[in-house]
Amino acid sequence: MISIAAAKLGFQPVIAIDFEEAAVEVAAGNAQANGVELDVRLADATEDDLPETGLVIANISLAAVEAAGPRFVADRAITAGYLVRDEPALPGFRRLERRELDGWAADLFARD
């Protein structure tokens, strides 16, 4: 899970958000099993308030990125989980970099 990797790399605090209760429970258990501290929350990033943070990492579909992206309260965002042919639009952000692997893409955005 991305949030566990972030915590192991020294990012703190790490807030993990998912809209499925089972995913939240699994993430909390995995964090404990990996000896890291996460703030795991049940929320819908397209509807619920999002925390203010320096960096958002979202590994979600293109539609979810575009629905949640305008709600990001962050200086930077890394988005992934969509195909190379997809070009996410994040109002208020500019794309700095794109990485591609095996037909999948990830983008780094900075706040305008």
Helix/strand structural class: alpha/beta
Gyration radius, in Å: 14 Å
Helix content range: 10-25%
Estimate the global geometry from the Cα principal axes: globular
Side-by-side strand order of the widest sheet = 3-4-6-5
Mean pLDDT: 95
How many helices? The count is 3
Number of strands: 6
Distance between the termini: 29 Å
Can you walk through the features of this model?
With 112 residues, the chain is an alpha/beta fold. The chain contains three helices and six strands; from the N terminus they run αβαββαβββ. The chain has helices spanning 2-8, 21-33, 62-68, and strands at residues 15-18, 39-42, 52-59, 73-83, 93-101, 104-111. The chain has a four-stranded mixed sheet, with no helix packed on it. The termini are far apart. The mean pLDDT is 95.
Please write out the topology.
Layout: H1 2-8, E1 15-18, H2 21-33, E2 39-42, E3 52-59, H3 62-68, E4 73-83, E5 93-101, E6 104-111
Parallel strand pairs: 1-2, 3-4
Antiparallel strand pairs: 4-6, 5-6
Give the gist of this structure:
This protein is an alpha/beta fold and 112 residues long. It is 24% helix and 39% strand.
Notable features of this structure?
4-stranded mixed β-sheet, two-stranded parallel sheet, alpha/beta, 3 helices, 24% helix, 112 residues
